[in-house]
Amino acid sequence: MASVAAVTVVTYRVMPVNATTAGLAFLLVVLVIASTWGFPEALAASVAATLTFNFFFFPPIGRLTIADPQNWIALFSFLMTALIASRLSAKARRRAQEAIEHQQDVERLYTFSRAILLIEGGEPFPRQLARKLAEIFGLTAVVLFDRRTGEFHRAGPAEFDGLDEQLREAALQGTSYFDGERQRVITAVRLGSEPIASLALQGAVMADAVLQGIANLVAIGLERARAQDLAHQVEAARQSEQLRTTLIDAMAHEFKTPLTSIRAATTSLLANTAEFPASKAELLRIADEEADRLQHLIDDAVEMARLDTAHIEVHAEPAHLDTIVREVVASMQTEIEDRPVEISADADVAPTGLDRRLVRLAIRQLFDNALKYSPPKTPVQIAIRGGNGVDTVEITDHGRGISPAEQERIFERFYRSGSVKSQIPGSGLGLSIAHSIARAHGGDLTVASRPGETTFRLSLPVREAEPAR
Hints:
Layout lengths: L1 H13 L4 H18 L2 H19 L11 H50 L6 H13 L3 E6 L4 E5 L8 H10 L3 E3 L4 E8 L2 E9 L5 H63 L7 H30 L9 E3 L1 H11 L1 H4 L4 E5 L6 E3 L1 H17 L7 E8 L2 E8 L6 H4 L22 H11 L3 E7 L2 E9 L8
Parallel strand pairs: 7-9
Antiparallel strand pairs: 1-2, 1-5, 3-4, 4-5, 6-8, 9-10, 10-12, 11-12
């Protein structure tokens, strides 16, 4: 109103002008008001300018009436022009303001995305993510609920309590919640179509596109953090595996060095047994045999340790299962003692491509398992069978049997039945390693058990292999 009054004073008193010039001056004032404040203010200025224009510039001067009908048309045209111009000006101003706000939103999203890339270790990644979000978007409170860990991460100067259940529901069901009075919003954070977290924001009204952009960036940030954690775990596991392999090799070397000296000594003495009495010669032979047995035990223990977690590489060569089984039995005479061992083999079991070293270790574990878990004097039966492109080794003992619940777990690493754990020594790795060796050959290891009889069945597919060079 003051602007309209000022124009009136200037055009009527200070620098008197005609009605046309005064009308253009009033129109200019209305446009300035519309572009500066908005349409309501411009509407009031248009009405005031129209009345002032009528009172001071249309005859009869000094009255809110118009003598000439043509001046009514001019006055109405002025009013419509002022209203339309002010409306367009206000609309343009609003669009310019929206463009500025949109640009600010884009800049904030860019800054937030850059901050995600620069987040380093120290405190938990989601907590840093929430704090960066509150700082960049000027929010009074931010709560990030990570569905994977079930943890809430809070940031911002204000408290934002009492919505934990809604955050959990949003992370599980993908629901949203909006409280316009408190300027609060809860939205799901999705990776693809699956909700992985939820986000609660307080302190600013945001467009849906901006809110969705924030949620997408949070999802990308959480996934990036998880990928980094996985990479660190893989690297730690790799380094641990390298250290483990190095220690195993070092231990094997330390064990084998004195054993090699013992074997060299016994071999040298046995070459001249004629110089010793029969009793001493027999002791030398026993020492040499036990040293050889100890050598095999060390080799098997080292091999089991290497196969515990490492990837199993199969170096296949033509071999006969019957021969491998008999080698294993012959190498375990001390464990067998006077227990009967029955070996039978089908005539159609043909040589197949397999890794002799690994299969020998698997059969040894199964045979040792049968000896340990069956009563003394009871027989252990080994059957080698062939047919339908599969060779099998079945090792049967007559122990107490394995319950159905335990049969589902005996191939797990380190699993041992509570009923025998304190009675029979073992690590719980033998069956797991034998199972892994079977799978590495494309075969399988299964068990069938009832009270008084347990059979482990090692199945290997018949395949060709290049002869060993």
